[in-house]
Structures are given as C-alpha cells and as structure tokens.
Amino acid sequence: MTENVVVLGAGYAGAGAVKTLQSELDDNARLTWIADVDYHLVLHESHRVIRDPDVQEDITIPVEEIAAPSTRFVEDEVTGLDTDERVVELADGEDVDYDYVLVALGSQTAYYGIPGLEDHSLTLKGLDDALEIHEAVVEASREATRGDPAQIVIGGAGLSGIQTAGEIAEFRDNHRAPLEIHLVEALEEIFPGNDPEIQQALRDLLQDAGVQIHTDDPITEANDDVIHFDEGEPLSHDVLVWTGGITGQDALETADLEKEHNRVNAGANFQTSNERVFAIGDSAVVDQGDRPAPPTAQAAWQAADVAAENINRAIQNRPLKTWEHKDKGTVVSVGDKAVAHGVKPAFGLALPVDTFGGVPAKNLKKAIAARWIADVSSANRARKAWPSL
Ligand SMILES: Cc1cc2nc3c(=O)[nH]c(=O)nc-3n(C[C@H](O)[C@H](O)[C@H](O)COP(=O)(O)OP(=O)(O)OC[C@H]3O[C@@H](n4cnc5c(N)ncnc54)[C@H](O)[C@@H]3O)c2cc1C
C-alpha cells in the first residue's frame, strides 16, 4: 500500500523535513509538499531586504532546488486540516489526502487585541512584508527633511525588531535619509528572556547606531500617526512596524488537535494529539520538559531531521525518536555589526568568552546563514549569497 506523506510549509521546518524525507522514504511512500510560495525564504535574514531589496535574490531559494523530481510540489494556501477525513484543505486547488502530515506552517503576527495596532502597522513575516517596509521607509524619507525627520517606530525588541531597527539605521546612514528610529519594548529589557550580557551589548550597538530605545511601557493603542503607551508620552510615527509577538496560523483554527493559540501541541517526538499529524517549527509547541522549544530558525532546523525520520518510523511501525533541543547560542545583527552569545562550536568545545562582537560575530552570523543555504540547496548558492548575508 502506498502511504501519502504531506508536508505543509516551505520554511526551515518544512524545507528541512522535505530534504530528509526524500532520502528516508522508500518506494511505498509518496511525498507531497504544499506551500503558499514557490520558494524557501531564509526568514532569519529577511530584515536585510529592508535596507536593500536586491538581497532577496540571495535569500529566496526556488523549490526546484530542494524538491526531488519524485516530490509533488503544490503552490497553494492551506486553509484547513480535516483530521477525520485526513485531508488538507486548500484555497484554490483540490483537497490533498494524507496518511501522515507534517504541519510546518510557521507563525503569524500576534496583536494581542491592542486597539488599532493591526490596522496601522506593518509586520515582518515574509518577503513581501520586508519589501513593503523598505518602500514605506523610502517614501517616508522622501517626504521628510533634516529639520523635520520621519519617525520610524518599531514595536517589539526581540530578534525581528532589533534586527529591523539595525537595518533601517544602516539605510539611514547609506542614503543620508532624514530618519529618527525608535525601538519600543513593553518589558524591562530589550531581547527579553535572554542573558543580560547580550541584552547590554545589543543596547550599546543600537544606541551607537542612533536608535532610540523605549522599554518597560506597553503600547495600549495605535492610530495612523501616533501610538499611546500605558504610562509614557504618545509617540508619533510615519512608519510603524510591529514585530512584538507570534501566534499560530489561522489555517489551523478548526483543526481538531490540541493547540495553544493555534500553535499545535506536539510531544518531543513531534507527534500531536492525532497520531497521523506531526508538527514542528513555529507552528508547534514542542514539549521539552520545563518549557517548549523556542520559536527560532535554529530549533526548526534541528527538529526537521528528526521529525522526518519519525514519520518514516511511524510508517514502518517502529518506535519514534525523542528530540532534545540543543541551544547552540545566538547571534544577532544590528546592521553591519553583530553580537554573539553562548555559542557552542562543534564537539562540545567551549569558547573563552560568552559574549563577543566585532568581525568574529559578524562572520559567524554570515556563516550560520550560509551553512543553512548550503544544506538546503548547494554550496554554490551559499557562496553566491555570502556578500548579502
Ligand atoms: C526578521 C527576523 C529575524 C529572525 N532572526 C532569527 C535569528 O537570528 N535566529 C533564529 O534562530 N531565528 C530567527 N528568526 C525566527 C525564525 O525565522 C523562525 O523561528 C523560523 O522561520 C521558523 O521556521 P518555520 O519553518 O517554523 O516557519 P517559517 O520559516 O515561517 O516558514 C513557514 C512556511 O509556511 C508557509 N505558509 C504559512 N502559512 C501558509 C498557509 N496557510 N498555506 C501554505 N503555506 C503557508 C510560509 O510561506 C513558509 O514557507 C527571525 C525571524 C524574523 C522574522
């Protein structure tokens, strides 16, 4: 009997799993890959496009470079998952049957019910978003003057917000654009939940780049030209970018699975409350004991291999593997600079310093992205992309 294996999403989780499934599955299985775009986006470098749209060439990898000839690729939007009938529902095409499905649809932006925020802000969850922010920043710079600079406000100082602020600062310097950049965070520190050393190092880099940081005051309302805070003075904006949170995809709303805010609960073997549905990456809350795996590219990339192997094991009625997320450290860019923290190179070797910046951090950031591009596509493509990373 032929088993239909379907992978949803072409991010780190989906593309990584497709690569592994193509080598793991035997002739009795048929692989279908569904995504709403026909490329893999190196999302964790998408902020570079805000400074320079040409970078998009280097961080989008056509699915043909990833999918084997035997893999059927369907470009369509997933609108639902019917676990009783075992079908994936699509916006345009015919429903796709599955025996096993891997949910790897990533996340969408959370607005936490803050009045006006969704209507008056741009966000960064894909290539089109990055291009839209670029256009908005260019337009705002055109209309501004040195005496009356355009106000660019970024809400949320996590990975996306910090790196977005850094790129806009770099754009301002390269084009001598009259821009004032503000990074706004509800919690006490930027890069919340991370080590104080990297928080401070990032704060220093952002301040050196002329980004004004506002912390410890949540946004309570957004209008088309101003945001209001719980305590502080309102802040006017010409461009508002919101990167302050993620939630699960609407497409999973009606799926009969255990979920938290549309992110699917999965065990450490990636199986969900339905044994034929596996979930990884940002669209899953993967059990790792005390707290779930973080919603990062690093975690999605690590998980993809094991999830693919477990689907193959499920088909063969073999016991599933348990995955343990390994934190290999963090590298965050602020324009052309970067800070690394807690980096654990191969073979368990410890570095003499926990937090470092300069050329080593900058090159490490490039090397991580290049390594992923080489893994998912080819060393040639990674080499070509290197200057953009
Ligand atoms: C600007 C930015 C910087 C970041 N920096 C870092 C970093 O430095 N380090 C790090 O580890 N992480 C970083 N992250 C987080 C990281 O990018 C995510 O955690 C990672 O992309 C999650 O991978 P994923 O495969 O689960 O989801 P995604 O990469 O988001 O992929 C989801 C896929 O599903 C597709 N899709 C979505 N909805 C549908 C639908 N309804 N139908 C069909 N297809 C659909 C999408 O097109 C996409 O192909 C950053 C994120 C951003 C936005």
From TrEMBL:
The keyword Flavoprotein applies. The keyword Signal does not apply. SUPFAM superfamilies: FAD/NAD(P)-binding domain (SSF51905). InterPro entries: FAD/NAD-bd_sf (IPR036188), FAD/NAD-binding_dom (IPR023753), NADH-Q_oxidoreductase (IPR051169). Residues 4-304 form the FAD/NAD(P)-binding domain. Keywords: FAD, Flavoprotein, Oxidoreductase. GO terms for molecular function: NAD(P)H dehydrogenase (quinone) activity. Transmembrane segments: none annotated. Pfam families: Pyr_redox_2 (PF07992). Signal peptide: none annotated. GO terms for biological process: aerobic electron transport chain. Its cofactor is FAD. It comes from the Archaea. PANTHER family: 64 KDA MITOCHONDRIAL NADH DEHYDROGENASE (EUROFUNG) (PTHR42913:SF3), APOPTOSIS-INDUCING FACTOR 1 (PTHR42913). Belongs to the NADH dehydrogenase family. This is FAD-dependent pyridine nucleotide-disulfide oxidoreductase.
